[in-house]
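Researcher: For the record, we're logging two predictions in this thread. I'll number them. Prediction 1 follows.
Model: Prediction 1, sequence and structure:
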Amino acid sequence: MDPQMLAAVLEPEVYRLLDELEYSRAGELALAERLRRQGLGPEAATAVLAQAELRQEAEAKFGPFAADMLFTRPGLEQATRLPVAAHHAARMTAAGGQVIADLGCGIGADALAFAGLGASVEAVDADEVTAAIAAFNLRHLDTVTVSHARAEEYDLSRADALWLDPARRDTASGRASGASRLSDPEAFSPSLSWAFKAAAEVAGAGIKLGPALDHGLVPHGWEAQWVSHDGDVVEVALYHGAVCQRPGRSALIMRDGGTLAVHESEVPADDETGIGELGAYLFEPDGAIVRAGLVRALCAPLNVRRISAPIAYLTGDALPAGAAARAVRAWRIADVLPAGIKPLRRALIERGISRVVIKKRGADIAPDQVRRQLKLPKGGRSATLFFTRIGEQHAVLLADHVELGSAAEP
């Protein structure tokens, strides 16, 4: 979206039509024709339809708030989900953040949460349209100001806490959706080294980054918390100063209306601890646990064991219960099958299986290629195959998904 299109959407009559529009992708052509009959030019009609579509998609992140917000496609894709933003806000305000500098504020998700817990927020974004949209989205909050500026230009003496979300996509060709992610932290905007220096100038700071962050980049004495929400790993947040609750790596799992936190201090010192034979169930740890390197921390609380030292799959003889069960997805192992394509195909056909979901850890395969090579006949049931290793041996596990909390033992 360019400034002219945003200005068009913000015209009172155009915005009224946006609010009244009941969007459906299937009916988009008819809606466009209706908007033109109501006096909108082609560009304004296109902008209204784009915003209506984005609002509909944004309900997954913002719930009912989405109906009173504006978006860009990359801004929505990169925005913090509201429950995760609420977690950020709870940490920042509990640490005494009264004036929070939100640098790289995007469309305003975190600023919305900070203000909701009573903080004054000075939000800044380097992109003109994004800053204008953030100002619109936060217009009802009198404790929030929004500025169009680079993070490096902000006077940190104005705030007692810093929240920073560096731009991590290549914007050389503009802020288009689908821009490639940057792998060099010094190419972020602002750079990660600048972010670390800025954090040292305030009482407490949080830095939101992508979950693929190298553990070696986390400074000593900081907390690095990988976060998943409803099964999706959404970020790693680095916390410093008053906002750092416990230095080291941690994982926060937000699922089914509850949370589970796991810290690296819970990992056994012996890397060989908890490796054993395949049990009745296979457990797939939450992605935040895997990214944080905390798989071994699950063995004792879940009464499970690892199938191989480097493999992030667990196994056990019973289904786990309680809050710790949020850390895994469960699969009942039906059989161990041969790894070769021909014998595997024969085994699947014998079991009436014609469609397979393929998962892998520790196996050098391409799932789509394997699926094509199997050439399974149609008309059978579906199943899940795990290509992995048990100890040092390659194995293919045939398994059925089990819902934890509602499943009974067979």
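Researcher: Logged. Prediction 2.
Model: Prediction 2, sequence and structure:
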Amino acid sequence: MENKNNITVFGATGRIGKELLKLLSQARIPVTAVTRDQNKAIALPGVVWVEADMSDKTSLSAALHGSRAVFLLSSVGKDFVKQQNNVIEAAQECNVRHLVKLSSGVADKESPLYIPRVHGEVEAFLKGSGLPHTILRSNGMMQNWLGELSDSVKQERKFYESTGEGKRAYVDIRDIAAVAFTVLTTPGKHINKTYLLTGDEAINYDQLARVISDVLSETVTYVPLSLEEAGRQMTEAGMPGWAVETFLAYDQAQRNGQAAFVTPAVQDILGRPATTIEKFTQDYADRFR
């Protein structure tokens, strides 16, 4: 028997997907979590894992059978547009009533940059499909600091970025997941809307260094890199050219003051302030120590 209350989550093994699964499970909402690798599945009450390939519409139809809503998130690669459009088409065929897409904060199908362009192309396809939808455009994510940046802080009490003194209103992925949960479970006024999700305050990396210093009770220093240095490091790390070009453009925009915008979307949808960098750093302090 179809469970018309079921929500299907793509990108379920990623950081945002995992947070969303937890919220849906806690709310006792039945979930189909889609993965290409069952070994990455996490056991949660009410969550059923299925294997599906976004390039294979037959497997997508099986994953979407009986779902009333879909959360669409996938990593950007060369087949990104075709794969996401496949999900949208399969959702239509399965009579899904609402699709929520996580998109780029600067999505634009006319962009010369690959990541914003492909997200913009999918957004245009989704809007033209007639499928009821909500688009969540995310700004820079705080959890992206948990990796190279936090490792550098742990090892050197320094970190290196190429954004100069430019500011950005970084958003916690737990807030993104909470917004997605709210929109998926109470879609009403969110149907066919596009939201740009940011934090409540634009900050630069000097400010982040001071916050981490306060939490660790040790001095942490931000070391600015030139765009050339950053590009060389990304290339040496094996990042594809289109990704290097995109991320350097993001950093250039931030250096120029073009990324300091703040929106009230998180607060408006959740009814509470967005997570601050102070709260984020306290919650993840062990990753920086």
